[in-house]
Amino acid sequence: MIVCWASLPGVFEFCVLIKRVRNLSTRQLIGAVLLIVSTVLWLFIPVIPFLPLELGSKAGLAVGVLVVAEATGYPGLALLGKETVQVLRQGYRRVMDSLRPSRK
Questions:
Q1: Which of 23-37, 54-68, 79-93 has the highest mean pLDDT?
Q2: CB pairs under 8 A, 24+ apart, for 80-85?
Q3: Range of 78's domain?
Q4: pLDDT of 33-70, one tens digit each?
Q5: For 28, 51, 60, 61, which has the most beta carbons within 10 A of its beta carbon?
Q6: Is residue 3 part of a domain?
């Protein structure tokens, strides 16, 4: 059972997405995993400069992580399919719009 609280912006959309995972095909599930791996790798890139490595090693690691993140992101989106990507895009836009200050 999944319990969701809609008090924070984007939480409701995330919970709806989690509930839809049960209905994903194997192809779409692999695409979702690849997209999650890509996102985690992109979030790791800003941490690389603070690792206790030499400068050349940091540069090589950053390039390697960047290449793998890109190489997993695009196939992940392709495997998810057009409809799922549209749902993700709409959820992203809703979250960004809720975080944007309103103009009066």
A1: 54-68
A2: 80/28, 80/31, 80/32, 80/35, 81/27, 81/28, 81/31, 84/24, 84/28, 84/31
A3: 24-98
A4: 898 899 999 999 999 999 999 999 999 999 999 999 99
A5: 28
A6: no
